[in-house]
Each structure stands twice: as structure tokens, then as C-alpha cells.
Design goal:
Length: 396
Amino acid sequence: MGSSKKNNSLYIDNEALSSLALVAEGLILPVSRLMNEKEARKVDKTKFYKGVPFPFSFILAPGGKQNHEVLKKLKAGDRVNLVNMGKKIGEIIVEETFPVDPKQRLCNIYGTSDPSHPGVKNTTLRLGKIAVSGSYHVDYPLIADNKKRITQMISQTGAKFITSMVLSAAPLNRAHERMIREALSTSDLLVIFLQKPFHDHTLRYDIRYNALSTFVETFLPRNRVLIIPFENTYIFAGDNELILDALLAKNYGCSQLVIGKNHGGLGLYYNENRLSSIFDQCSNIDIHIKTIDEYVYCNICNTLVSTQTCPHGQHHHVHYHSGSIMQLITQGVIPPTILVRKEVSASILSALHPNRFENLQELLYTITPGSGLLEQQSEEQFYRKLIELYQTTSLT
């Protein structure tokens, strides 16, 4: 029996498990199961599933020699265990197995099979040559908990119009804040899906979450904003991101998805000799997609402005480029407060550079104003007070 169980197991990683859980919880409807060969071929060709846009087939083709041997032997009606991190987390009732062309699969997902592409590289390592279809169940509490939290918040607040947005917030900057406030101003509830990738990121998820939570809890109305961890697996890649984000938000119960006009997935393309955009595909998804202008800091207006309404040229604009801001933070440099709020900078810097100062309390006492009492204070409090000194104007 022990040998039989081992031979009827497929080993999957966390990324595959998360994707399977999203579908199992009904969050990528109308997809509700692993597609069979006929369905998969049709979706890859038409980019639609049951009348709704879907960028590529939803299949499971796990890599690895042991998985390959198991998949070769499976027959219709077989039950196969799904194993993650040495633990059984689900089961598939097999409908069929069928061959997969890994190179074509990569092109369907990323638009390229170039191994220098980071997504292609990661997926190549985990993609096999045989797919299995059928109904399944998996145990993955995070996804179910996310769904429960949103449902409870809607019930508690009586929210009718729920707006969503997907953020990386690496780091959270003033332009993000403006987008969040604008989205919240016309909504009963705002759900922020904070990206939580499975591969390397410029800033750890916990640091980004704490910084965003600091802003939400301190500067926004209580019980009107909810932060949800969003494990953006390979299925949310590239140009497919916006379609899948829209489906996810709709199935979570949201009325609207807000995106910036500089969103990478908004590019124009030709389809059957007609100029199209991603909105043409999303029109079949029952959710409103709202675009928000790009915001910049204008040194003439002396404030954050929309590029559509500011009369001054680009040479007067400071852009909120996340990579550039992260370069400062990574080197331990405090970003100007016109770029990043001091509370957010302090939260990130204290997490990224712990125990940076040998005599922190002495430093606090000698160069920052205080209450006159000797108090033990944190590195985050130190950064906040230091930033306040940078903001003084009488000597500048």
C-alpha cells in the first residue's frame, strides 16, 4: 500500500498550489477545473473560455522525472494525490492526460520562450511535458482566508460599491497614496491586493505590508480599506495580468478595478487588422475598469499633479519611479518626503537596515528634540525624527 500511494502522487510547488487554490475557491471563474486537451487547445487558440476572456489554458503539467513517470501511467478515473513540501494537500480525479509542448506553453503565457526572460526561466524549471485534467480539491488556507476576510468586511460595513487595486508598493510612494485616496473617494470599500511574488523581489513582502498598513491605519478612514496578500503566480504574467486581475477582483465581489494609465498591460495591439487594447478583451468581464492619470511632483505647482492637468513641461516634473526610489532606500538614503511619506520611509529603513547605529539612544538624545525624559526609542522613531529635521525651512 505504501508503494502504491507513493506511485500515485504528483509533487507540486507552492506556486502551482496557489494557482490551483484560486480556481478551487471560484476566484478565476468561469474556470473551475483543470482543462482537458480539447478545452486547452481551444483556449490557447481563441483566448476565451465559456465566453469570457482567458489568456491561455489552465492546466497542470508538473516537471520532474518522478512526476513524468506517474503521469505516463495515469488512466481516466484514477485518483492521484497532490503533495507539497512532503505533505498531501489535495487530490485529482483524472479525466485524461495529454502531451504539452513546453516551448509553446511558455509562448502562450509570456509571449516568448526566450530563456533570458525571468518568468520563462522560472517556469521552464517547473514545467513538464504531460498535463493532467479533471476535478480536484486542495487545502490552502491563505486563499480561503482572503475570501472570508473580504466577505466579512462587506457584510460588516454594508458596502455596495467595492473598488479594488493591485499594488506592488515597492516602495509605497506619494503617487500610490493619491491613487488610493482617489479610488476610496468614490467607493464604500477599497480592497488593495498587495503583490506577494514567489520569486525574488526588490523589497520583502512583510516590509511592504507593514509600510502600507502604517499609511492605511494612520491616514485613511477606518474600516474602509482592506489589504489582501495577492500571490501573483505565473498565470498573472505580462500582458495577461490585467485580464486575470479583473477576473480575480470580480470573483472576490468587487465592483471596480482601478489601474494607472501607465500600467504595462494597457498597450495597443493589432487583432485581425484592427487596433485593439486590453479593454476590448475585458469588456466581457462584469467589472468596471477605471484608469487614473499618472501623477508627478511639479516644482512650479509645488504639489502632486496629474500629467493631464499640469501646464508645465516635463522638465519641471519629478516622476515616481519605484526603481530609482528603491536605489536610495537600499543604500540607506532617506527619500525626499515629496516622494515617500516619512512614516513609510522610517518603517522601511528600520526593517532593511537593523542595528545600523551603535549608540542609537545617544544619537537620538543629542540631535533630535525630545520630551526631556530619557526614553528607549526604536530605530523607526529615530528615522521619523531625523526626517522631521530635514523638513525644517528657516535655515534653507
